[in-house]
Specification:
Blueprint lengths: L1 H9 L25 H5 L2 H21 L2 H19 L1 H19 L13 H13 L6 H16 L8 H17 L4 H4 L2 H17 L1 H4 L5 H6 L9 H18 L4 H22 L1 H6 L1 H12 L16 H24 L26 H7 L24 H20 L4 H26 L3 H27 L7
Helix pairs in contact: 1-3, 1-13, 3-4, 3-13, 5-6, 5-16, 6-7, 7-8, 8-10, 10-13, 10-16, 13-14, 14-16, 18-21, 19-20, 20-21
Length: 477
């Protein structure tokens, strides 16, 4: 959805529904990202940049006119009641967020970061309780940082960095809000604004580095693209998310319109992806509201330049973030993307029976239970045959497991049922082979293909099992 609103937003409306798309597809943490050159030669990337620049330049030009000041005055009038109680609003949302993830249970800072430690949930409840007193706010801030550090013991650093910017900004807000020194307290909302902006710009790069993570999302929920082709939607959605985050750092009208656009984006994602998605994005949504409500003409630490410096500053931001993203991945994993990379398949989004999507929809039914403690990023165990020995032995064992249930399935007297009962183990065999390829294979093209096979075959297994369930036919083991 992000792209739909993005294109409209560049023309004067908004952009689309955003969520960490790695939530919706299996991925390998150490897999090499798509070369940056692929993005720089993508026409849709540059079209998106051009549309957003037109929007920013027009907004900045209007802001300097009397009509722009009238628009800002109208925003102030509407949002002034919230602005007068903004600290109360932010604290209530922070507390409500930690109560919500306490209720979800077994997570760190978002519903997709799982943990087997029950005491972590009680720590979240304690953080929520500490938010309402200025004496205990620093304890709540420390607790947020501790949760991130604890998550780092089970999760990969590279894929926790977007959570870091948001967590530090919320912790910083609590520390500054509790301060008795006005010269420090006045920076509390700026810290939140920069934290969200950095988190959005960093996470948007996934759409350029790993576009295949988004394929299952587009296939399972095609209405999100409003008919746009997949390879057009994904890069332009990345542009929309990055530039709206960048807009939060600009001048008053650009900043507030960007915040309103992002608020529409995140709210639009709630219904398609369920209440858990709302919990996961609650802090970002609250901070975006705070930014939109801020009437300050020129906030501290804003980018205050003339209209014609917008392209240069946006280019500089893209250069810094892209260099950091691809450069850090290279430093952590090496050129081949294999250094210290776990071999198990991963998926960061927790399975939801209310709104099923992503690899765990099928993984819950077909994969063996994960061993105790294997909760990082939704880890699933590799096929048993792939845990040791050679690739050839693993492939042969996966085929042996597939053949018997296939033979049993195709013997059903109903040819339609026989087809489905035979195809389910056939698809599971393809998934097993793809997982083995990811464990042993080195070729980046084959590894990417294997990831796509896993996502596609699991989605089709889901459809076939739903077909069987609708007809009251027992599910295959």
């Amino acid at each position: 959805m992000l792209l739909r609103f993005a294109v409209l937003g560049c023309a004067g409306v908004a952009s689309t529904a955003h969520a960490h798309v790695k939530w919706f597809a299996p991925y390998i943490v150490g897999a090499p990202p798509q070369p940056l050159s692929a993005t720089l030669t993508n026409q849709w990337f540059w079209i998106g940049i051009a549309l957003v620049l037109m929007f920013f330049l027009a907004t900045r030009a209007v802001e300097k006119m009397s009509v722009g000041q009238s628009i800002l005055a109208g925003m102030d009038k509407v949002m002034n009641p919230l602005w007068m109680r903004l600290d109360d609003f932010v604290r209530v949302v922070i507390a409500a967020f930690f109560v919500a993830i306490f209720a979800v249970g077994g997570v760190y800072l978002t519903p997709d970061l799982k943990t087997p430690n029950e005491w972590v949930s009680w720590m979240q409840l304690l953080i929520a309780a500490c938010v309402f007193s200025r004496r205990t706010m620093p304890l709540a801030a420390a607790g947020i940082i501790v949760l991130w550090v604890l998550a780092l013991t089970e999760y990969d650093l590279f894929h926790l960095l977007d959570y870091l910017a948001l967590g530090v900004s919320v912790a910083g807000y609590l520390v500054l809000e509790s301060s008795k020194k006005p010269q420090w307290r006045k920076y509390r909302f700026e810290v939140l604004r920069w934290g969200v902006a950095i988190a959005l710009m960093w996470s948007s790069l996934e759409k350029f580095a790993y576009p295949d993570w988004f394929y299952p999302l587009v296939e399972e929920k095609p209405f999100l693209t409003f008919g746009m082709p997949r390879d057009m939607f994904i890069p332009m959605a990345g542009v929309a998310e990055f530039t709206m985050g960048f807009g939060l750092l600009w001048t008053a009208l650009v900043r507030r319109l960007s915040a309103i656009t992002l608020f529409v984006i995140f709210n639009a994602a709630v219904y398609p992806f369920g209440r858990i998605d709302m919990v996961g994005h609650a802090l970002i949504m609250a901070i975006i509201v705070a930014i939109a409500a801020d009437p300050t003409p020129q906030v501290r630490f804003a980018i205050r330049r003339s209209v014609w410096t917008i392209p240069a500053m946006l280019s500089a931001a893209l250069l810094v973030f892209a260099s950091g993203y691809w450069g850090l991945h290279l430093a952590l994993y090496g050129p081949s993307g294999e250094a210290n990379a776990p071999t198990a398949e991963m998926a960061t989004h927790t399975y939801s029976a209310e709104h099923p999507h992503g690899p765990q929809v099928i993984g819950q039914a077909t994969a063996p239970p994960a061993p105790s403690g294997a909760h990082g990023l939704g880890h699933t165990a590799p096929p048993a045959s792939a845990s040791g020995g050679s690739a050839r032995e693993a492939y042969e064992a996966s085929m042996a497991r597939m053949h018997r249930p296939m033979q049993v399935g195709i013997r059903h007297p109903d040819p339609d049922v026989a087809f489905v009962l035979g195809m389910i183990p056939h698809h599971q065999g393809a998934i097993d082979m793809a997982q083995i390829q990811l464990q042993y294979g080195q070729d980046p093209v084959n590894r990417k293909l294997a990831q796509e096979i896993i996502a596609a075959q699991r989605h089709e297994i889901q459809e076939m099992k739903a077909w069987l369930a609708a007809r009251g036919i027992p599910q295959p083991n």
